[in-house]
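User: quick one, sequence for these tokens?
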């Protein structure tokens, strides 16, 4: 996933309403009307939120007879998880190096607090 795609997804999820929509869709598909029932806003406003999520690849809409259910695209979250995991591993490696350095410094100066004067 490109850096711009990650930025787009995180930007889409930064809005409280859109994040709530994603949370709702994690339990299953829903129509625009079903989603709009939860919010004190017009169907058009909820549709705009869905468009942002759709443009980011977080959700998709499809036609089933008269219904147009909105579906959460789990693949995007799998890609985001991989992206986050890569940075978590890098941070973990840095912390391990820092721990090792601090242990070496502690070994070199075993009485670092004894006899110190201020």
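Assistant:
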């Amino acid at each position: 996933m490109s850096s711009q795609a990650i930025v787009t997804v995180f930007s889409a999820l930064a809005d409280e309403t859109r994040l709530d929509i994603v949370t709702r869709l994690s339990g299953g598909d829903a129509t625009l009307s079903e989603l709009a029932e939860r919010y004190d806003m017009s169907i058009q406003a909820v549709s705009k939120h869905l468009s942002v999520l759709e443009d980011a690849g977080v959700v998709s809409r499809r036609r089933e007879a008269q219904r147009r259910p909105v579906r959460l695209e789990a693949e995007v979250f799998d890609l985001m998880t991989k992206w986050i995991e890569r940075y978590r591993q890098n941070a973990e490696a840095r912390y391990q190096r820092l721990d090792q350095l601090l242990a070496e410094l502690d070994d070199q100066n075993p009485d670092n607090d004894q006899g110190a004067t201020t």
